[in-house]
Specification:
The protein is mainly β. Helix content is 0%, strand content 48%. It contains no helices and eleven strands.
Length: 126
């Protein structure tokens, strides 16, 4: 099993940037894909981005494509979400998640993820 901890959230003005980090501990010797999800206030949780174990494939929601970049450093058991050109609509609690061990393909559905962090708040002011 994995334990995930997010960091890097905060308050930023529109047009600014943040980089979120998610560090895994536990069964880190297994390979697994990772994803980022977010839940804006009063709205449903949505997929933001995902990345395969080897980082050869990625997924981005249309709303963030061209602005956000997902990456990972498996030696550090960490996945990142670089968020540029932030907009007020990006305000949400951001969660990182991991698929089951040996599930290495990047997927968008949250039901495919079994390990979740506690979330980190991102607030973008106008």
């Amino acid at each position: 099993q994995l334990q995930l901890v997010e960091s890097g959230g905060g308050l930023v003005q529109a047009g600014g940037s943040l980089r979120l980090s998610c560090t895994a501990s536990g069964r880190t010797y297994s390979r697994y894909a990772m994803g980022w999800f977010r839940q804006p206030p009063g709205k449903e949780r949505e997929g933001v981005s995902s990345i395969s174990w080897s980082a050869d494939t990625t997924y981005y929601a249309e709303s963030v494509k061209g602005r956000f970049t997902i990456s990972r450093d498996n030696a550090k058991n960490t996945v990142y979400l670089q968020m540029n050109s932030l907009e007020p609509e990006d305000t949400a609690v951001y969660y990182c998640a991991a698929r089951a061990p040996l599930r290495t393909a990047a997927v968008a559905r949250d039901s495919e993820y079994v390990y979740w962090g506690q979330g980190t708040q991102v607030t973008v002011s106008s």
